[in-house]
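[audit] Reproducing an earlier prediction to check determinism. Same input, same settings, fresh worker. If the tokens differ from the archived copy the diff job will pick it up downstream; this log only records the rerun itself.
[audit] input (405 residues):
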Amino acid sequence: MKYFTLTDNLFVITEKFPQTLAVFISHGFTQLADEGKRSTFGKALQLDIAILMRQLEQDNFIQALEASIDGSSQEARNSDTVYVKGLLPCPVRLPLQETFDEVIELKASQGLKINADLKAASMGLDWIKEEVANANSIDQLDDIYISAGFDMFFDDEYFGRFIKSHELSDPTQWNSINKDFDNENLSLKDPHGRYGIIAVVPAVFLVNTEVLGGRPVPQSWKELLNPVYERSVSLPVADFDLFNAILLTIDNNYGRDAVRALGRNMLMSLHPAQMVKSDRQKINKPAITIMPYFFTKMVKEGSSMKAVWPKDGAIISPIFMTGKNNNNRHIAEVAEIVSGEKVATILSHQGLFPSLNPNIDNRLPQGASFLWLGWDYIESHNLNSKFSECQEAFNESQIVENMKQ
């Protein structure tokens, strides 16, 4: 290392080399953007510990810091390095990471450096949100971002402002998308080329036929709202991306009273991994669980659990990708890898996250369809405000049901 050691603290490094501040902030150390916190937080954290904390690749991160000191940070970003950041779906994180590692090694031998900071979706989006919210310019952001979640990509506090200024856009190179998502009733390709979607997380039903008793098996979201299922449904409330998508889509398709009905029918919140074992619970067994399609394949054969793909469509939470519009010709090259057939096959066939890649057979159940908000809805609504309204209506019905007990 030319300018500092691994035992130097962040305050010392940023004080001596202010040009490194943007690099630290863009890699998640957003506290350093505040001068007071830079002094307190920065003095308390050594560089080596900071790298471990953020699970950064040490050599690449140090190279980025040194490049900023050399005055060539932006030149490096515009020439032979592409920075990728985001979340990978937990069920397929390992095979995806292995694929990316192979690609990174191959491209490095060809002169293209890919600095990828990809974490499991279970870690949540806060580490990226802080970075994007504190960015004063596009130069403080990485080149490509990947994740589910409506709020981060559309809210002006985060990526929305850079989309509106045309500094971020859809980096995929498809002329068309998979036929499963491009028809007269559904089109996930952004007509304005602002947002890319590489795959989706579909929400379906898992029905415990024993607990259901004599009640009919619900075949659609509309049927699920029937009072006959009061306090019988478990929902993935902790999975914010999917839960947001469910509430917003129910509200858009069936109205606010439908959101209240869903809240009335909720028995509990469970993680999908718990849901597939809910038939083994001693008490409070849900009759119906709403979960990502992937987890239905974990159900023990011969159990009382039955998977149902809703007839009005599986509600989807898209996995978005956005990238910089600048002179780095390699961004499109890396985006093509992320949205390419190898990654798409892992997402679709191993993770059961249907891909938008036009060359993939998603192996969907016969007659499977999807429900999603649609670009017109997204264009004309503040999604965070709408979600807050839906959450309030959902919670109100929950409180009323709890008071009855």
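[audit] rerun output stored. Observation attached for the diff report: The CA atoms of residues 58 and 388 lie 40 Å apart.
[audit] end
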